[in-house]
Amino acid sequence: MDAQSRGRAENIDPADQWVLNPNTGEYELRLGNSTAQSSVPSPRSSRRGRPADPDAARGRGGAPVREPREAPEQGAEVPQPRRRRGAEPEQQPGRRNRRPAKKSKAKKIAAWTGGGMALVLVAVGSAGYLYLKHLEGNVSTTDVGSAAKQGFSKDDAFNILIIGTDKRTGKGNNGYGDKNSVGHADTNILLHVAKDRTNATALSIPRDMIVDVPDCETIQPDGSRKVVPGSSQVRFNTSLGQEGRDAGCTMRTVKAVTGITPDHFMMVDFNAVKTLTAAVGGVKVCLKHAVNDKDSHLDLPAGESKIQGEQALAFVRTRHAWGNQGDLDRIKVQQQFMGSLMRDMSSSDTLTNPSKLLDLAEAATKALTVDQGIKSVSTLKDIALEMKKVPPKNITFMTVPVKDNPADGVIHKTVIVNPDLGPPVFDAINGDVSFTDVKKKEKAAKDAQAARLKGSRSAPSDVRVRIMNGGAVAGSAQETLNWMQTEKSILKSENAGNAPAELSKTTLEYAPDQAPQARELAALMGLPGSALKPGESVTNSQGLPAMSLTLGKDFKGAGVSLTAPSKAPDVSDKSTADKVECAS
After folding, report:
1. Spatial separation of the C-alpha atoms in residues 90 and 532, rounded to whole Å
2. Among candidates 28, 37, 33, 27, which has minimal Cα distance to 10?
3. Which of these, 377, 384, 438, lies nearest to 191 by C-alpha position?
4. CA atoms within 13 A on the CB side of 370
5. Exposure string (b/e) for 520-529, b if CB count within 10 Å is 16 or more?
6. Under 8 Å CB-to-CB from 75, ≥6 apart: which residues?
7. What is the mean pLDDT of each run of 10 residues along the chain (584 residues)?
8. How many whole angstroms separate alpha carbon 289 and alpha carbon 420?
9. How far apart are CA 457 and CA 543, in angstroms?
10. 465 phi and psi, to 5 degrees?
């Protein structure tokens, strides 16, 4: 008897025979009290045009094959199939006239979710990292070469650039965006997730911000490589699509502007907003005033509304309905929308509904394009599980601090990075500093680093050091030498040229008896404790023992401190993912 026939015979809804095993995070077919069968797409998925491979589950002669699975952990409860409405409950042997103990709502949700709380990383491009293997083929990839990392580390902080394009792809999108757009970077969010997973920051980058787009190497469809020349003083959104630039060019532009290196990118189009909001049954939004925008066709009353599909896309696309009718006010509304989408996607209504989860996963993965380093389902699952650890109250939305572009004249059309307020924000993110109050899990490690800087220190005139360039901008070693000798009286210093290998972080290696010298130089240069590396001394040009200072890729210039700020700067108009806000 097949699953559907058996389900009808036992008054069980066939679709409900597929349940989520909380121990594995995968869906399994459960026939009554029988052992779980292989984790494959459910019959409900097949009825929706997503059939599983029929040959994969059959052996010789077409006979069904059941693969053995590990038994659930002792004490773990696995949800059982629901019975049809009106059907008499089946009594279990040994439990006559006894009601099963009720499970608290919180525990029920926890049992169902597995990694589900991580359905959203952020924004329209953040959802859908459900690790159902049959969805992997939905995800598109772009090879951006060295702009992205080759893999994902679960032990480090990570930065993901989320890009929403204005390309008119997909059914019903002819009325949106620029008719002739090749797909510019219309909505951009740099997501930073802290190393200790206590917090995350979603930094919106205005599309109309004037920047210098650097030269970038792109990989063509035939595998050849083409360098697209950079452009000076252009809008940020032209870092994608223009002149054949790919997402790697946008990643390089982010690094050039902020100093923050994106590790990976995720890109979506207009369809993502429509399909994701439909998959969760609509997203709740709040308006301080009624809106009837003829350009976007957004028509909503004041107060709370639930929107999906075309209305949801109009909500995040319109500019004329908010504030000063500019891109900065639209970004604020988009951040409010994303917070609401995150709450809806992580709610019990979504996480305890297998059908809704499958629809959500299908919608998200079909709308998603990523780099080669995170294209596999296992990697996307790892990202999701790491994001799950971050409390929503510690996910901060903010925008790059900007000011009006003076080159525009009277009519302001573009903005530039605020030179006073922008760098402190970038430094805080680069230094893995939270914009919310959190308890750091790595206090002991940081205390150990700080201890290296404590103790006696030598006079600057006694410091002997050889300087090497190990990945910093060309000329940095000589610049640092001049700074040391002219401004800090470190006369026993010399330029040793290029290091044997590039380093991501600046390091100062010293012998045990040179510790006072190391502490003095670290204090003068603003080196963090992690930059100090106990080891061996080297011989300088005078034949005397000296320390080795290697300027890494993180080097910002002579006299510029590399020590991360202990506290993030105050930023106006920031919000967190757990707060409900009304668009105005």
Report:
1. 68
2. 33
3. 384
4. 29
5. bbbebbebbb
6. none
7. 44 47 52 44 41 43 45 46 49 49 41 35 38 67 93 93 76 49 84 93 95 94 90 96 93 95 91 85 90 88 92 86 80 86 71 73 80 86 84 91 93 92 92 81 49 74 96 96 96 96 94 94 89 94 96 92 81 84 82
8. 34
9. 23
10. -150, 140
Alpha carbons 140 and 367: distance in angstroms, whole number: 8
HEC string of 211-279? EEECCEEEECCCCCEEEECCEEEEEHHHHCCHHHCCHHHHHHHHHHHHCCCCCEEEEECHHHHHHHHHH
What CA–CA distances, in Å, run from 302 to 54, 126, 287, 539?
Answer: 51, 28, 5, 74
Tokens of 437: 């109050």
CB neighbour list of residue 179: distance below 8 Å, 6 or more residues apart: 168
Give the C-alpha separation, 579 to 81, whole Å: 35
Q: List C-alpha distances in Å: 42 to 87, 132, 166, 275, 355.
A: 23, 11, 35, 21, 10
Q: Residue 434 in contact with residue 198, Cβ under 8 Å?
A: yes
pLDDT of amino acid 19: 52
Which two tokens mark 104?
């608290």
Rounded to the nearest 5°, which phi and psi values hold at 38?
A: -60, 150
Report the distance separating Cα 201 and Cα 221, nearest Å: 34
- CA 400 to CA 88: how far, in whole Å? 60
Q: Hey, which residues does 127 pair with through a beta bridge?
A: 120
Per-residue model confidence (pLDDT) at position 368: 83
Q: How far is CA 575 from CA 148, 330, 392, 571, 572, in A?
A: 29, 15, 11, 10, 9
Burial of 504 (0-12, 13-18, 19+ CB in 10 A): exposed
Q: In angstroms, rounded to a whole number, what is the distance separating the alpha carbons of residues 507 and 549?
A: 6
Q: In angstroms, rounded to a whole number, what is the distance separating the alpha carbons of residues 196 and 438? A: 10
Q: Do residues 31 and 6 lie in contact, with contact meaning Cβ atoms separated by under 8 Å?
A: yes
Given this model, what pLDDT does residue 45 score?
Answer: 42
What single-letter DSSP state applies at residue 127? B
**Residue 105: burial class (beta carbons within 10 Å; 0-12, 13-18, 19+):** exposed
What is the H or E stretch that residue 321 is in? none
- Report in angstroms the alpha-carbon separations of 314 from 207, 209, 293, 345: 18, 23, 9, 20
User: Do the beta carbons of residue 319 and residue 326 sit within 8 Å?
Assistant: yes
Residues 6+ apart with CB under 8 A from 313: 176, 270, 273, 274
Cα(193)–Cα(154) distance, integer angstroms: 11
Instruction: State residue 320's pLDDT score.
Output: 75
